[in-house]
């Protein structure tokens, strides 16, 4: 009898069976039990490492968010407070000063309109930047202080206009009254429709986006010289990707790869294909994915530019494959990349239907105990078993197509095919080198 580990078929064992025997996987099949235990211990270490790295990334993000908020609270908010107090002081001066003639009345009435407009902006910014305070009480005070300051400014503008009218310059007062009424109405509508919770949520999202632009978005960085340059990377290895990006930003790693996540400036942007490339499609999404994608293809344009720069520098282009799968997962050629991508997507689309099937629901009860925490490649014991069951449910043709595609990520397949189309030499590497 022979057995093997499903997660790693290379780990196997056999034994001679004669008669009725009780067999133990840990003892009866030679070194199988020892090797399987080592494999599971190693996977447990990977899971723990990923958990720690995830916590580190979360802490780093929280640290960056705290810095972002502190910057706004310490610098921008005091500036807004100063501008607000200065504006109210100048408005009070406009109330106190009596017009000395037609020219001065026009000047004062114009100043009232401008100051009311500025104080409206200060009031809204009071609420915006106040939402970044750590204290809930301070957020509440800043939110209501913004509308209170504008209400006070509107009363001051009304008092100034009334003073000009009673001073005999009614036309100057009325000319300022109309725009002041419009400004007061618009700002009143704004303050009435803005809630504290919405303000806090919006500012938190803005801060996270700002931090993401600094820490997550990556445009690539080509170092001078003929050293190695990471030209294609499997995105599912997130922790290793963080190491790569950190090294690149410190100037230690040359990388042509690009990452523009959702919410970043260039996410969703599409770039046309130059005529000299003789490729069909309105943008690069078509040859790469077979259809336009919501994330766009601006990343592809940036990646190509980085590759061209690396080639000019004489760099050694490196393509990283999944662990233990160097050389696998390539597409036939670049012109087939989009079509093959659509074919794989169509097959993967059957997964949802499979997960809802009664066949899977019955099996799922038996695999619920498997680990669901991810290891370095983003997969878990549970997700890999689900994938195996899904492959088993497919036709032989579909199953072989998905199995043959393993080794490179979806975008990587097009990247490697493009390097070959352009005749750029590259070195095949195993991503395991970054997982230590």
UniProtKB/TrEMBL annotation:
<feature type="transmembrane region" description="Helical">
    <location>
        <begin position="108"/>
        <end position="129"/>
    </location>
</feature>
<feature type="transmembrane region" description="Helical">
    <location>
        <begin position="168"/>
        <end position="192"/>
    </location>
</feature>
<keyword id="KW-1133">Transmembrane helix</keyword>
<protein>
    <submittedName>
        <fullName>Uncharacterized protein</fullName>
    </submittedName>
</protein>
<feature type="transmembrane region" description="Helical">
    <location>
        <begin position="141"/>
        <end position="162"/>
    </location>
</feature>
<feature type="transmembrane region" description="Helical">
    <location>
        <begin position="73"/>
        <end position="96"/>
    </location>
</feature>
<keyword id="KW-0472">Membrane</keyword>
<keyword id="KW-0812">Transmembrane</keyword>
